[in-house]
Amino acid sequence: MLTAHWLYGISGCLLLALGLRTALLHDMLLQRLIGINVMGAGVFLVLITVAYRGPGIAPDPVLHALVLTGIVVAVSATALALALARRLTAEQDDG
What we know:
By secondary structure, the chain is mainly α. It has a single domain, classed as Helix Hairpins, CATH 1.10.287. The protein has three helices and no strands. It has helices spanning 4-25, 29-51, 61-94. The model has no long low-confidence stretch (mean pLDDT 93).
């Protein structure tokens, strides 16, 4: 029987694979950035799945803290990448 634990793990692996495929195969910078973000969401979902220990048992707090920190870093890195992509596009249009 497919439990929620397995469903989350499989979904995370599929998101990871989809994001990796998008990041590697597309030429546009924005599409690659979106692919990397989807891949990161898959990694976070897999880590949350790994942190689960069973019903009635507290999950691993280290992995939860790692995922929370990773989400903050991913948002900041995405903002920086979008700003750099915008500047790169403006430089290419002017030159």
